[in-house]
């Protein structure tokens, strides 16, 4: 990916559905060139825009990170089966005391239990699971940005981006879920294309999408093949923070450049931080900086991602390119929905 590719991805992180004409001025390139660039990036799987339930839905369901241990030789088969499941948002093959790390969004804590017991329990070769139930997302990965734009370019893009309306989030309605799932493979699809696929009036599609995004019930996110974009090391830190300091420390860590996702969880390690950096040396330096800034925290565990198999519904190859899509479906996260699925 060259500098213009990265700048285009960075711009779409600020405003994923911005028109090419809107992006032409801050990027200094004509709209036709941007359109061709994006078409190439999408065709190669190097970049994409997706849509998924927003962090506000945590108030109406449950979010968990699940560690999975596998028998030797079973990792790839198990990872592929889990990645094909719409209940699973992301799947990583990692170092450390687990083979796979999953993110799971469910309709309830009971549905998380059903996922672990019924879905994962049906897969041969799993030796253990360890579930970390989150009670607060301090930073969600759609807020993370590449560093390919100047300050003036970022300011220009932020001026044009939409903002929330302040309306109550509420749970997703069925028509909103339908629009969300249709947008998951390509978050830049037109209202007309969505309306034709879903058999809805275009005005209804537009209203559903606007309402979801402005209230935080759904999130649009521009992603890139992280390895090709230069972010070659990703990993997870399990931190122990004194409970009275948890929220303050977590909120501050959430502002750090390297922190892509930050969530409070229940357990001895009560804060999990997903970190993206350019190299292993930066990861070590980041950990040293964390402990220096917040001496009260303890790094309980850590892992480096050897391979992303799935990230927020997108199936990935070894370089992080998108090669398929299995969207996270909030309607299929109850134990009853899991029964009878292929394993």
UniProtKB/TrEMBL annotation:
- InterPro entries (UniProt xref): AsnC-type_HTH_dom, Dimeric_a/b-barrel, Tscrpt_reg_AsnC-like, Tscrpt_reg_AsnC/Lrp_C, WH-like_DNA-bd_sf, WH_DNA-bd_sf
Q: Which UniProt keywords apply?
A: DNA-binding, Transcription, Transcription regulation
Q: Name one GO cellular component term.
A: cytosol
Residue span, Transcription regulator AsnC/Lrp ligand binding domain: 66-134
Q: Which domain of life is it from?
A: Bacteria
Q: Name one GO biological process term.
A: response to amino acid
Q: Which residues form the HTH asnC-type domain?
A: 1-41
Molecular function as annotated in GO? sequence-specific DNA binding
Q: Does the keyword Glycoprotein apply?
A: no
Q: Is the keyword Amino-acid biosynthesis assigned to this protein? A: no
The record ties this protein, via Pfam families, to: AsnC_trans_reg, HTH_AsnC-type
Q: What is this protein called?
A: Lrp/AsnC family transcriptional regulator
State the organism of origin. Answer: Actinomadura montaniterrae
């Amino acid at each position: 990916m060259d500098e213009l590719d990265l700048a285009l991805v960075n711009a779409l992180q600020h405003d994923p559905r911005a028109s090419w004409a809107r992006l032409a001025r801050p990027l200094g390139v004509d709209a036709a060139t941007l359109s061709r660039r994006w078409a190439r990036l999408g065709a190669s799987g190097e970049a994409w825009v997706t849509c998924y339930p927003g962090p506000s839905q945590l108030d109406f369901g449950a979010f968990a990170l699940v560690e999975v241990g596998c028998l030797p030789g079973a990792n790839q088969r198990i990872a592929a089966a889990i990645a094909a499941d719409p209940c699973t948002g992301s799947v990583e093959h990692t170092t450390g005391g687990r083979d796979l790390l999953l993110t799971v969004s469910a309709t309830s804590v009971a549905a998380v239990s059903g996922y672990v017991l019924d879905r994962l329990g049906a897969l041969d070769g799993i030796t253990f699971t360890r579930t970390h139930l989150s009670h607060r997302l301090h930073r969600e990965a759609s807020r993370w940005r590449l560093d390919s734009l100047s300050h003036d370019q970022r300011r220009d893009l932020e001026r044009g981006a939409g903002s929330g309306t302040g309306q109550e989030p509420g749970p997703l309605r069925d028509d909103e879920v339908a629009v969300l799932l249709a947008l998951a493979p390509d978050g830049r699809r037109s209202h007309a294309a969505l309306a034709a696929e879903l058999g809805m009036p275009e005005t209804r599609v537009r209203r559903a999408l606007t309402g979801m995004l402005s209230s935080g019930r759904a999130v649009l996110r521009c992603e890139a093949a992280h390895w090709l974009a230069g972010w070659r090391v990703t990993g997870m830190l399990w931190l122990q923070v004194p409970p009275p300091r948890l929220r303050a420390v977590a909120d501050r860590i959430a502002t750090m450049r390297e922190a892509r996702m930050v969530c409070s969880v229940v357990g001895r390690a009560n804060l999990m931080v997903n970190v993206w950096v350019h190299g292993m040396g930066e990861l070590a330096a980041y950990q040293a900086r964390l402990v220096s800034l917040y001496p009260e925290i303890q790094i309980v565990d850590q892992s480096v991602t050897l391979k992303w198999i799935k990230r927020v519904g997108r199936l990935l190859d070894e370089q992080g390119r998108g090669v398929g899509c299995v969207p996270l479906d909030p309607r299929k996260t109850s134990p009853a929905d899991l029964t009878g699925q292929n394993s």
